[in-house]
Amino acid sequence: VEAVHLIADGKAPRIPQPKEGATYEGIQKKENAEISWDQPAAALHNWIRGHDKVPGAWATIDGQVVTFYGSSLLDASVPAGQELAIKGASRPGLVTKNGLVVFGNDGKMVLVRNLQFEDGKMIPASKYFSADETTTLELTEEEKKMAEDIR
């Protein structure tokens, strides 16, 4: 009650909180979330997962910023896949059927499941090389008639 009265009367002491020992981290910015590739796989995984969903850990691939989402440590033999050069990485990543495999400086692997491009388009990492392919929907005569009836 005494504290409430001091506040109400404008007489409560004002002691600034010291910065030392503070645990609050400010809002992360996208420019600070670039992946540093010269670290072990566990650190890469923690960095990607720690920035998942906002602001998103990113790297430069083919001259554009690509954001990585959904990583997990991969404890298996090196899977078969198509090589993908990543700026700053000492070893190219591998686009596999399960996603993008990237390597830490300890030779261990991290599997990334989703990638997002600068234009906001998100794809499964396993579809990186087929992302530009477009398919057209072909309707049968029966489906065309049904589409007309619905219209």
UniProtKB/TrEMBL annotation:
One molecular function GO term is: catalytic activity
Coiled coil segments of this chain: none
* SUPFAM superfamilies registered for this protein in UniProt: FMT C-terminal domain-like
Q: Where is the Formyl transferase C-terminal domain?
A: 29-130
Give the InterPro entries listed for this entry: Formyl_trans_C, Formyl_trans_C_sf, Formyl_transferase-like_C_sf
Q: What is this protein called?
A: AL1L2 dehydrogenase
